[in-house]
Amino acid sequence: MKRKDKILIQAQLQFNEQGISAVSLKAIAKAMKISYGNVTYHFANKAQLVGQLYANMLTEHQQISMAFGAQKNLLEAIILAPNDTFEISFRYRFLFIDFATIIRQYPDIHQQQQQLTATRMEALAPIFDLLKQQGYFRTEIPPSQIQHLMQISGAIRTFFFMHHYTEIEQTKNLEDIKRSYLLYVNQLLYPYLTPSGIQVYKEVLNLE
Predict the structure, then answer these.
(1) Most buried among 22, 102, 116, 147, by the most CB within 10 A?
(2) What pLDDT, in 10s, does the model give residues 161-205?
(3) Which residues contact 202 (CB under 8 A, 6 or more apart)?
(4) Phi/psi of residue 168, each to 5°?
(5) Of 110, 192, 180, whose CA–CA distance to 149 is shortest?
(6) Are 7 and 43 in contact (CB under 8 A)?
(7) Stretch 122-148: mean pLDDT, rounded?
(8) Which residues contact 189 (CB under 8 A, 6 or more apart)?
(9) What is the crossing angle of helices 107-133 and 74-91, to 10°?
(10) What confidence tens digit (pLDDT) does each residue in 47-106 have?
């Protein structure tokens, strides 16, 4: 493994454990038992390091998104999407837990996040239209409300990792957290579903 990748792994570990603000490049170098110069050779500052980790997370998410369009049952795919992305988000959870820090200290990353949200909303809009045609989404819901749903969906995922920080760090059963995450995110969908959509919702989530 290249040293650059080892630095990223160590930084990711420390950011998750201590938070972005508490970790310096010197602390990363000390933990790796290498010189500070060896770290700054690959990453001149912490912003570059955080930016690379954010880019890595996006790449992992995009691999899942590429397979999303091939799903035959779109509603089921949407309901299960948090399951597919949870482990990636968990590995990079500092990006969610330290969201306010990123907004203040790393505006370039925050701008990328906003652009990504806009792109996802544009891509998902026709999918929600199709769900209306299939009888799963209520037809009387205006497009503006669907856009609001997509915006809130991103915010609620971030809030989950912030709100459940202690529980996540102390858990010995990640599957329980994953299940909680799946149910937590999907609660947003329920008010928008038709009776047929609710039936699929309950079947997919194994709810009575």
Answers:
(1) 102
(2) 888 877 777 777 889 899 999 999 999 999 999 999 999 999 999
(3) 208
(4) -65, -45
(5) 192
(6) yes
(7) 88
(8) 78, 79, 149, 201
(9) 160
(10) 999 999 999 999 998 877 776 666 678 899 999 999 989 999 999 999 999 999 998 999
Q: Is the pLDDT of residue 21 over 90?
A: yes
The tokens 């912490």 sit on which residue? Answer: 46
Q: Distance between CA 169 and CA 150 in Å, rounded?
A: 28
10 Å Cβ neighbour count for 208? Answer: 3
Q: CB within 8 A of 60, min separation 6: which ones?
A: 88
Number of other residues whose CB lies within 10 A of the CB of residue 180 = 16
Query: What are the residues whose beta carbons fall under 8 Å from the beta carbon of 54, sequence distance 6 or more?
Result: 92, 95, 109, 112
**How many angstroms separate the CA atoms of 69 and 144, rounded?**
23
The Cα 48–Cα 54 span in angstroms is 10
What is the residue whose two structure tokens read 């459940």?
Answer: 164
DSSP for 119-149, written as a single string: HHHHHHHHHHHHHHHTTSB-TTS-HHHHHHH
Q: Which residues contact 88 (CB under 8 A, 6 or more apart)?
A: 57, 60, 61, 64
| Alpha helix ranges (H) inside 69-106 | 74-91, 94-97, 99-105
Instruction: Write out the two tokens for 127.
Output: 């999918």
Q: Any idea which residue has 């837990």 for tokens? A: 97
C-alpha triplet 108, 21, 102: angle, nearest 5°: 25
Residue 153 and residue 124: Cα distance in Å, rounded? 12
